[in-house]
Amino acid sequence: MTTLIETAEHKALRDAVAALGRRYGRDYVARTVAEGRPPTELWAEAGKLGYLGVNLPEERGGGGGGITELSIVLEELGAAGSPLLMLIVSPAICGTVIARFGTEDQKRTWLPGLADGSRLMAFGITEPDAGSNSHRITTTARKDGADWLLSGRKVFISGVDMADAVLIVGRTEDARTGRLKPCLFIVPTDAPGFQKRAIDMELKAAERQFELVLDDVRLPAEALVGDEDAGLLQLFAGLNPERIMTAAFAIGMGRYALAKAIEYARDRTVWKTPIGAHQAIAHPLAQAHIDLELSRLMMQKAAHLYDAGDDIGAGEAANMAKYAAGEACVKAVDQAVHTLGGNGLTREFGLASLITAARVSRIAPVSREMILNYVSHQTLGLPKSY
To answer: What is the dihedral of CA 200, 201, 205, 208, to 10 degrees?
Structure first.
């Protein structure tokens, strides 16, 4: 059952993370982008305070919570202007998959470091020719004695330069049917045959995007995560948190932009009264706030379902939350910039760069059109067009 009223512990977590975010803020993120480096100081402090691993098991150094708690962390950092993109990837996707399906050795090796931020793992699923169709993944792993040989290409992989390893989604051949099936492998970034190339992005962010080439990367048997025959289940155990956390990222960004616009609308006076007194300014801002709050409710529902172990219900809710939050974020940022007028495009107010950044929540990790396909097929029962 979804809890609509947050617990005192969750409220305290929000307040504490918001305070951390304000100590860094948008200026810190802008500075790391200008310097071409990741936000290591914020990442390290968030890890030291226990925020990075709130969703990971206590016995592995985490906070013993779930995606519900981790989404609060990301949303509040975003609302303070200093979101951590790799929260979506390292603890939410990789940490969750290893905690649920990893071997004892994998859990012992990776989870404490992922929880305190001393180690970081990227996630590699997207390929140049597969797009949103994970069934077209061509990265393959074949047996070579006791080892695996992994070959393929990945694109738009976040934070590889920061990561100790990448959780790679590949495919292996089913000995019974001959068909390829998904599997997940932990691939060290210093492994022979592992190559990375930074992608020149128009969108400037602290975390860079990479293309990966895997040329017969030799991996020991223990690099395989979980059961070779349960790859699809393990994959979606990571993709649902990814969608929930992307929603949190979008909601935080939307809240940040909206707060800037509200502050400006209260103070800016042109015709004897502050511009926020005019309904043409006030109503769109109010609508943006409503949309963000509604998106958060769906995100909370998705997180609660996932933490309760309802993977099917969480899948539907996570997709809806990601869709709603992406739309709400884009509209909030657009209205914030419009409220400030020319000032909304200046470096001083720091909103113009969000115009591009907000669109990421519509595109990644899955497009809004594919989410509409999911809802029309899985929820409404309409026939597929593909």
So the answer is: -40
The answer to whether the beta carbons of residues 314 and 71 sit under 8 Å apart is no
pLDDT of residue 236: 80
Whole-angstrom distance between the N-terminal and C-terminal Cα of the chain? 35
Q: Count how many Cα atoms sit within 13 Å of the Cα of residue 39 in the half-sphere of its side chain.
A: 26
Q: What is the mean pLDDT of residues 314-327?
A: 97
Output the DSSP codes for 266-319: HH-EEESEEGGGSHHHHHHHHHHHHHHHHHHHHHHHHHHHHHTT-HHHHHHHHH
Is pLDDT above 90 for 170? yes
Q: Is residue 2's pLDDT more than 80?
A: no
What's the burial of 30, exposed, middle or buried (CB within 10 Å: 0-12/13-18/19+)?
middle
Structure tokens at 74: 């990301």
Q: What is the pLDDT of residues 8-55, one digit of tens each?
A: 999 999 999 999 999 999 999 999 999 999 999 999 999 999 999 999
Q: How many helices (H) and strands (E) does the chain have?
A: 11, 9
Partners of 188 in the β-ladder: 165
> What is the pTM assigned to this prediction?
0.95
Structure-block tokens of residue 71? 């989404």
Closest CA to 24 of 51, 4, 45, 3: 45
pLDDT level of residue 3 (50, 70, 90 thresholds): low
Residue 210, Cα to own-chain centre: how many angstroms? 16
Supply the pLDDT for residue 232: 73
